[in-house]
């Protein structure tokens, strides 16, 4: 969350951020009114507490001096002060809870250099890579969802049968490709200085609040018990939507030492998200599903190093696409598409040539987001209580958190099946993946299981 000091001293900047991010359900004036009353009560409480201490000290002196009547008056005054102090503290506690809840709904303020824009149509393309030396493609590239079924390496019908729409089976060489991609990503980032973390899959509500998924986005998450209409408690469990949640909360409510920083963690996990977007060609196949594999990179850094680390994180994320030989582009998000928690964000979009989309490149095909690299500044650190101590004798400060997907597996698989497709319907395995595929160079597919169903006689 943003600091209360920022809210108090820069309310116009906060209002501008709300407008820039399209947030229309936060009333800054109302929050400031709560904050001002809370501060006044805290100040009055401090004064009453001081006065009561003085009166209490005087009671003994008055009794020793034999001034019983004045001592009784002091006792009565102390009792009145205590009663008023209890009223103030109760009201201040209520206001504190109200203020804390309200602050959770204020988004991170965008960096000053973030492009101003209303929505994704105003994002800014920073550069393209890999288009100068494209491989020869078939005259007509078969979309991954058709090719996957023809090769019997993707099975959507049985995925829907077992779990419902938005789920799929990767089979045989399809499953091997997914495993190979995960291992390749992890090994690449280890060489970049990342420490592996294997996180728990269920995460509690407190963790979801720490990274900013809650309280605004509960409808996107899979709740393990109870319905979305019921209020949640801090210890309620949810299936993680991204490994960002458990890995960032790894150091929740901790004070790290300066020598600990920077920390670079990576985590593979399956991820679960309720929303499936619009139906149709845009989302057909494994482009947008309810469960998907991903490797996530999370960084904890000193505030003065976060800009440089952000650029480094972009390079680390795109390095896997470069090694796979997949063309891609980098977009900078405008304010209207920046997201609730981010101060700055770049998306990395891989080129998939199988389906022509209006917003695709001139070569045809479409863009698929495979990584979002985000700088949260101290937003998540404040929510999760993650601090560091610059020097042993100095006060603790909030550090900065960043993350980036390294990368989303299904969409990279889509790009490989379409970009490395051959005229005969086979798929070349990118050279970087071959060691993780036992040296296999071509995906040729399998013969499908002959019986499609077993019914009653």
UniProtKB/TrEMBL annotation:
Q: Which Pfam families match?
A: Seryl_tRNA_N (PF02403), tRNA-synt_2b (PF00587)
The UniProt GO MF terms for this protein read: ATP binding; serine-tRNA ligase activity
Domain Aminoacyl-transfer RNA synthetases class-II family profile as annotated: residue spans: 139-430
Q: What EC class does the entry list? A: ligase
Q: Gene3D superfamilies in the record, alphabetically?
A: Bira Bifunctional Protein, Domain 2, Serine-tRNA synthetase, tRNA binding domain
Query: Which residues are recorded as binding L-serine?
Result: 242-244, 273, 296, 403, 405
Coiled-coil stretches noted in the UniProt entry, renumbered to this chain: none
The UniProt entry's GO CC annotations, sorted and at most eight, read: cytoplasm
User: What segment(s) does the record annotate as region Disordered?
Assistant: 45-78
Comp. bias (Basic and acidic residues) = 45-67
**PROSITE patterns linked to this entry:** AA_TRNA_LIGASE_II (PS50862)
- Which PANTHER family does this entry report, sorted A to Z? SERINE--TRNA LIGASE, SERYL-TRNA SYNTHETASE
Task: Write out the similarity annotation.
Answer: Belongs to the class-II aminoacyl-tRNA synthetase family. Type-1 seryl-tRNA synthetase subfamily.
What NCBIfam families does the database record attribute to this sequence?
A: serS (TIGR00414)
Name this polypeptide is given: Serine--tRNA ligase
